[in-house]
Amino acid sequence: MNKVLMDLKQKLGQINELIIDKDDVLYFDYPLHLNVGDLLIYAGTEAFFKDYGINIRLRRCLQAFDLEDVKKFIKPTTTLICHGGGNFGDLYPLIQKMREDIVQAFPNNRVIVMPQTAHYSCDEAMQKSAKIFKSHSDCHLFARDISTFELLKTNFSDNVALSPDMAHQLYGHLKPKATNQSATGNTLYFLRKDIEKSHLEEQIRATLTSGAAIKDWEDVLTVRDHKYELWCSRLATFANRFKLGFLKNVINEMWYRYSLQVIERMRDIFTSYDLVVTSRLHGHIFSCLLELPNQVCDNSYGKNLGYYNQWTKEIEFAKPY
């Protein structure tokens, strides 16, 4: 076992210490979408709940979120947990509004926001959001990097702590790349194409030959994956509209099982290469969990190298690009 990766996994234990009653926890914003990085966080979070004996009484994705429904499950000792990731800020307003609604609706309950990277493109939006979080006296925010920590500590809450990503809880749960696996000499260039891409992706592409393996999550997902996601999402929206709590629970079970299948397929793809060069934070974290040599380059606002410098720079098989 890699000592650095084991230490990162153990650092997540500080979140467990904040839970008031392990039998009275609600979990929000599990990702019913096909960003595999978010699915790795999801699987890591569920592994965290299992490893620490935490009983989740209610799970709700964004599509199935109904504040009035949630209020039925609230008790004085209830701890509310919001999913971690890189969506804290104004790039993903619907998810941020969900967190803000929870913070405003339950001022007397402990709220924990799992490890996040925060980014605001608009200072006015940041100040508006900060005012909501600052009004809650028992809201605990975890930051994946120093810049996020400083932003949250300065503007959002006194209860801010540094923490690695929840996907690190998967270390030891995922089968790593076999040390006796034959070398292929092949490199996977795992480069993002979405709103967080930077000029680096194009620079890297310009240096590669036509036969290079260049992929992003969307390139390794199948038509069946997208159909299943769409079906589950629509069903969750339907269940929310008609207040069908039992159906929301069934969808959660189905999507979680499917998420684990997707992750296992991604593992097979990644471990078929000897090196991963990536601008996806979870391309980097996933490679580390699989003990697969990797090089990480930054995204549009410094998330990747901020994370690398904070947590993974001591891993001998990982380095910046």
Topology at a glance:
Blueprint: H1 3-11, H2 13-16, E1 25-28, H3 36-51, E2 56-60, H4 67-71, E3 79-82, E4 85-89, H5 93-105, E5 110-119, H6 123-134, E6 139-143, H7 146-155, E7 160-162, E8 187-190, H8 199-206, E9 213-215, H9 217-220, H10 223-241, H11 245-270, E10 275-278, H12 281-289, E11 294-296, H13 303-312, E12 318-320
Parallel strand pairs: 1-2, 1-3, 3-5, 4-5, 5-6, 6-7, 8-9, 8-10, 10-11, 11-12
Helix pairs in contact: 3-11, 3-12, 10-11, 12-13
Question: What are the key terms here?
Answer:
321 residues; 13 helices; seven-stranded parallel beta sheet; 12 strands
Strand elements, count: 12
The arrangement of helices and strands along the chain is HHEHEHEEHEHEHEEHEHHHEHEHE
Sheet with the most strands? 7 strands, parallel
Give the count of helical stretches. 13
Any idea what the shape is? globular
Report the portion of residues in β strands: 15-25%
- Give the N-to-C terminal Cα separation: 25 Å
The average pLDDT is 95
Radius of gyration: 19 Å
Low-confidence region ranges: none
Structural class: alpha/beta
What portion of residues is helical?
Answer: 40-55%
Instruction: Characterize the quaternary organization of these chains.
Output: single chain
In short:
By secondary structure, the protein is of the alpha/beta class.
